[in-house]
DNA sequence: CCTGTTATTGATCAAGTGATCAATAGAGTT
DNA sequence: AACTCTATTGATCACTTGATCAATAACAGG
């Protein structure tokens, strides 16, 4: 048994150490924001010297950008997988709205919002943000187009509608980040708004399936 | 004619100097973000020693919070004044949506987004953000309630709908900050979404007044 | 058991931050 | 003209940041 932790960190395979660093950065970003990712903070969490973190990354900006991508891509994949189980486009869209508004991923929302700002001074991050936004938009566009093909939705521009829905979701989540109270029935309001945009039947997207209040 | 600027800044009345500092901070925030507000950057813009800026503020966090309030309150007042000219609630709401989506205030949007993140580490700023969000919501709620009173809107919860519209606008603007292209007819899509939420007649809010595409 | 490769260290540098405060000097008052 | 008040200075401190790199030590292959 050792009282004080070992002076020197165990030597590990580069891939393993890189994974540890990525994981530490991910946790830091979710807990304290992307701005909390520094050479020293990440190193401390992994239990290595700061120089080692620098050794595994060209610079901190890249680590921040990679961390953002890791976090956000996982969310997109998770939600997309959830949707894949449902066959009916209106059901898929309803689940999508419901899931993204449930407040279970507010830490990810915080990362999104921070990335929008940090992207101004971190070109690599800005590129990641654009790429991940495209990924989200693609997921939404898929659902909208499937609904159109099935004759359940009707809109002349699925791509634009998908962008619009994405923007609304982002805004409502960002709002929830700052202000929880005061807003009732977020899901129902959004569902009605989206029904109008995609040309779905009234009530087709309301989570509980209740057509009217 | 003097080649080099005077060593010492002219002595001014405290209120005047304070105004200069506030204005410099405002410009910096709009041009380079709230994070660009530092004792030295503000001092340099005013043409004064850094110590003087500190002399006029308890700390930098307060200056950032005040600057945010100044910028955002001016926007709210400006738009509210615009609306006041129109008597008809649907027209007011249409103008509101149209104005906020026209991209003329993207610099203010950037300040909003940054404040959401910075508020995490600046309690004074967080309080300002909440307060200014409330102010915006009140403007929107007013319009919605006027429409209900006039029998042109129909919704059981004007306050929640106002919050919802605000969130959507914020999200769409934040999106525009990062990605301009790909989205067509933002105004029309949003107008339709809002029509659904406030229970207005189809086409009542479309900017050009065209009921259908 | 050597020996070469390289993962790891930690001190170091330059740059930037907020904050403090004794010293200075400008402007109004007497 | 002397004086008083205070706006203004700028050096200074303690701290944090990203980055660099010579030195160290652990592991693998011969």
Textual characterization of the structure:
The structure is a homodimer of 213-residue chains. Chain A is an all-alpha fold and 213 residues long. Chain A folds into 2 domains: 11-57, Arc Repressor Mutant, subunit A; 59-198, Tetracycline Repressor, domain 2 (Orthogonal Bundle), CATH 1.10.357.10. Chain A has 9 helices and no strands. The radius of gyration of chain A is 21 Å and the shape is elongated. The model of chain A has no long low-confidence stretch (mean pLDDT 92). Chains A and B meet through α6, α7, α8 and α9 of A and α6, α7, α8 and α9 of B. Chain A binds a DNA duplex (30 and 30 nucleotides) through α3.
SSE inventory with pairings:
The structure is a homodimer of 213-residue chains.
Chain A: H1 14-32, H2 39-46, H3 50-56, H4 60-84, H5 89-100, H6 106-118, H7 123-149, H8 158-178, H9 186-198
Chain A binds a DNA duplex (30 and 30 nucleotides) through residues 7-14, 17, 38-40, 48-52, 54-55, 59-60.
Task: Give the key terms.
9 helices, mainly alpha, Tetracycline Repressor, domain 2, 213 residues, homodimer, Arc Repressor Mutant, subunit A
What would the principal axes of the Cα set say about the shape of chain A? Answer: elongated
Oligomer: homodimer
Number of domains of chain A: 2
- If interface size is counted as residues with C-beta under 8 Å from the partner's C-beta, which chains form the largest one? A-B, 48 and 48 residues
Helix % of chain A is: 55-70%
CATH class group of the largest domain in chain A = Mainly Alpha
């Amino acid at each position: 048994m050792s009282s004080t932790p070992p002076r020197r960190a165990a030597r590990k395979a580069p891939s393993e150490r890189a994974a540890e660093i990525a994981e530490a950065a991910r946790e830091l970003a979710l807990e304290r924001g992307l701005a909390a990712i520094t050479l020293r903070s990440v190193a401390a969490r992994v239990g290595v010297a700061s120089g080692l973190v620098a050794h595994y990354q060209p610079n901190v900006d890249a680590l921040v950008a990679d961390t953002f991508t890791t976090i956000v891509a996982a969310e997109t994949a998770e939600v997309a997988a959830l949707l894949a189980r449902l066959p009916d486009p209106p059901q898929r869209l309803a689940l999508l709205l419901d899931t993204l508004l449930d407040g279970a991923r507010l830490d990810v929302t915080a990362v999104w919002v921070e990335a929008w700002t940090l992207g101004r001074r971190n070109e690599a991050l800005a590129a990641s943000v654009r790429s991940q936004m495209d990924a989200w938009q693609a997921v939404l566009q898929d659902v909208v187009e499937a609904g159109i093909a099935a004759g359940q939705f009707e809109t002349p521009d699925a791509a634009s509608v998908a962008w619009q829905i994405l923007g609304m979701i982002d805004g409502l989540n960002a709002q929830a980040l700052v202000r929880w109270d005061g807003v009732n029935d977020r899901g129902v309001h959004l569902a009605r708004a989206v029904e109008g945009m995609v040309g779905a039947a009234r009530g087709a997207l309301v989570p509980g399936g209740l057509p009217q209040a």
